[in-house]
Amino acid sequence: MKMRFWKTLCGVVLIALMLLPLGVAFAVSYPYYTGIFIYKYPNKMEYEVGDSFDPTGMEIHGYCLQADGKTVINKLGLSSLTYSPKTFTEEGWVPVTLTLQCKGASGQMETFATTLNVHVNPIEGDPPLYWVKSISATATKTNYTIGESIDLSTITVWAYSEGDYPPEDAKWDCTGFVKSISPMKFTKLGEQYVTIVANLTTYEGTADFTTKLKVNVRDKIEIDKDPKGETVTEGGSCYFTVKGKNYDYLNWYFAKGKTVILGKFIRDEFPTLKVSGIYDKKLKLSNIPLEMDGWSVYCEFITDAETVESKWAEIHVLPKETPTPEPTAVPDTPAPAVTADPSTAPTEGPSSDPVAETSAEPTAEPTLEPAPTHTHSFDGVYHHNEKQHWLECTCGERTAVADHIVAEWKTIMEPTKDRTGVRKGVCAVCGMELVESYAYEPSENDGNSMGWLLYLGIGLAGAAVLGIAGACTYMAVKKKKGKKEETGEEEREEE
Q1: What is the pTM of this model?
Q2: CA dihedral of residues 428, 430, 432, 435 (deg, nearest 10)
């Protein structure tokens, strides 16, 4: 009996272990969706009061969790899309709640939601349902040049209302009720006012309201001299000069094809180049590399009303000429020795020729002066580009070159699973402002929904195993007890 009991128990445990994956599968049904987001906005984002929402052109994607724990992004159909509100009754920025039916962790269809903000304008041409007491005007462009027409798209006219609805001193955009603007074209210089008239509702009916917008009109920028092209030898120098009138400041630019670089950043492209005068009428370039051949320079004259660009001046850089080697010097052939005639040989005794008696002294070699040495001078001002900063000598030598160090980043846009984030910081050494993107990093809680569902399935399977094992044990004990009782009855009958 004991052997039969243990065999039965082992069989039950084996069957339970075989059913364990099935229990987990019932607990978690992969793949399933954990959320949705708007991948592409609808074609229409501007509405008027009374319009209905139009989802045409919109795409919604969903986060789909796989059995291996990875999340993929799928495009979803919009057949089950619902949204609220369907019709806009209020003006301003209005949130629209979008819902879709997708397969959830339970294996059944679940509702997921996201939000889209659209802008709702008041009904154009309809007078307001309240009374106006005054108006004002603001503009994003208030600087113009002589002869220029006013830019109506930059002007907003505000009405200030009184009465019971809306509350007293309410402010609203009444640009659509503007009746006239004067002047439309500026013919005189200096600060002046634009008169704006709007026809709006009053307590007694409709009336014209007037406000003034202050603008400044300046002379047009005139360029008297454009820079001219230059041809230089590699490592040489050249100047570019411009002249103009009626401008506030200027900037030099370098360009080649579609590449345009602001003057102060050109050394990021050509580190050995020396530049001065990038904000002056005369630009000087020194130590010009051969790689600058074909590049151009031009100047922008700037005011708060306009920007005017000069003509482009091209740079031609010629390679250095290789010097021709000098021919090797041929040593002079010594004259043949002359044998002295004994008859003319000098007699013994002191010579009467003072030159002959003077011994020849060797010619002194010239003293070479040492070459001048250059001592680097670093002024303590850090130069920088997008990645590094450094100290620089007047000769162009760099020292203390290092990557930017940012102690604290300020997040501009949080990253998500489907897009990178953007953050901004300031280098603690050179003070350069840095803006960079960074990737989304999943936290420890990401994917925990899958984990606890897995544990739930394992727990259910384990409970099933324990339940079956207990039931089998109970049946075996009961059966054994029944046989004992039957054996006792038979023994009593025999007695």
Answers
A1: 0.41
A2: -50
